[in-house]
Predict the structure.
Amino acid sequence: MQYEYFIGLRYTRAKRRNHFISFISLISMAGIALGVAALIVVLSVMNGFQKELRTRILGVASHVQITGPDNSLADWQRIATQARENPQVVAAAPYVNAQGMLTFDAQVRGAIVRGIDPELESAVADLGQHMVVGQLDALKPGEFGIVLGSELARALRVQPGERVTLIAPQGLVTPAGVVPRLKQFRVVGIFQVDHYEYDSALALVHLADAQRLYQLGDRVSGVRLKLADLFESRNVARELYRSIGGDIFISDWTRSHATFFKAVEVEKRVMFIILTLIVAVAAFNVVSTLVMVVTDKQSDIAILRTLGATPASVMRIFIVQGAVIGLVGTLIGVVGGIVLALNVDTVLPWIERTFSVQFISKEIYFIAELPSELRRADVIAIAAVSLVMSFVATIYPSWRASRVRPAEALRYE
């Protein structure tokens, strides 16, 4: 080991006469560890939130959907067949999308009514896996069954087997005026995807019943597609538009739900910048620590210079000392951040129970629990940023130490 590294490590381990310097060193180390751990946990939570939101949205929505003008598509069988010819398309299902009002006793709620074919729908969405009561296959043509989201059923105070009245906006013209179309539906199931937007507003009926209620005949609103790789949705949408042609509109999930994912991505970047400032403040505390150490060790520096140490060697001594503070703080922060990120689903409920607070409200954040996804690339990037900042913080105090003149330092010794 070169003597610069030996002395630098010795200065780090030694008990200084000035305990305030030791205290500042510990504060700097703790600040770096706290900042690194916070960065890892926050980015992991943002990654998990983005993945969970995407999974739950696409469990109800579709990767790609093809619609016609005025939300109406006549020859949907031909379009579905042509879409399946694309190697990325693994399934296709027709749907009817409309608005309605559900009433039960004195309760009234607006809803998005979606007509589906249960057999085909199970291939493009995961709604069947989120049924808490009943089965999606209970929707039979002509029986006018309905499946409600859990929050919607709770708001209506309706139980499976009871009948709700669906009011369609399309009315019937009678001598007495326009009368809204009414139809009673029997609740045959309840689903819960833990996404408040869908749980509180989505109602599923059979495709044939929806066509009859909304007077569509054989037409549907569009065709929903599931892809082998959801991240190829934009390319597949372009290819389908060129291959199918005609008066159609093709949209993919990155456009129909772009607001959610862009918001999460922007929040992730902003949080990275803000929390990096915590690491920066802690790292530059190393500057004050080393400046005080240099002042305290001027006589030692002068003796080393008289023994033949070069200014570069003196710089390396204090760079090593500052780098050790940054390295230890970063390692503690990485280990603590990884442990906390992997156990955030246990730690957060404990904090909520202990202090009687709620951090995650599904009415606001669309999900009921805090997800976490730890990514190796994020950990490496955070550790690298912390180490670089710590190294940069050592340059000025080390340069100042190298400029100490032996004669002036030893004049009053």
In short: The CA atoms of residues 159 and 394 lie 68 Å apart. The first helix runs from residue 3 to 13. The mean pLDDT is 82. Residues 62-255 form one domain.
